Amino acid sequence: MDLRSALEAYLPWNEQEQRDCREILRRLKSGEALFTRENPAAHLTASAWVVSPDRKQVLLAYHNLYHSWAWLGGHADGDRDLLFAAMREVREESGLTEVRPVSDNIYSLEILSVDGHEKQGVYVSSHLHLNVTYLLEASPKAVIHCKSDENSRIGWFSPEDAVAASSEPWFRERIYKKLNEKLVNFLPAE
């Protein structure tokens, strides 16, 4: 299913997702270039809430740019399959070789503001990440490692500790708590 169809079929969890879904759809329908970073105002990103098979752990990376523990993910960089992009980013940022979707459907939506910053010696202006999140699963026993140009640590946390580990209040309260609340719909069969 293409992204526009997936967004049109998506059932928002709350008002934030409802409004963000509407805005992402509006931008897609406008023909705005969103799948690459060439659009300096806004572009698509794909994130992953990576959980253990028993849903008792969440994988986070300590992102050097934001000085915070955070979910894994990144830019679409031309890829129109955002689930694939999310899985690619998880593999790159964590070293995991075995990661699988709990569902092929969108797990969450967010429009995220990114402050201006320097990346690899080049200034990047403030912009929006039109973010699509997927729920992925991996084994906490698998080998993981940092991607030193992006993160300095990587580790598994309980869902509650994952929220508390973030130093970004808005992410803690509005994103990570929501992602954990949604897990109730994806508990493993007993």
Structure report:
The chain is α+β, with helices and mostly antiparallel strands and 190 residues long. It has one domain: Nucleoside Triphosphate Pyrophosphohydrolase. 29% of the residues lie in helices and 29% in strands. The protein is built from five helices and ten strands; from the N terminus they run ααββββαββββββαα. It has helices at 3-9, 15-29, 82-94, 159-165, 169-182; strands at 42-51, 58-63, 68-70, 72-75, 100-101, 108-114, 117-119, 122-124, 127-137, 151-157. The strands form two sheets. Strands 1, 2, 3, 4, 5, 6, 9 and 10 form an eight-stranded mixed beta sheet that branches. A hairpin with a 2-residue loop joins β7 (117-119) and β8 (122-124). α4 (159-165) runs antiparallel to α5. The radius of gyration is 16 Å and the shape is globular. The relative contact order is 0.21. The mean pLDDT is 91.
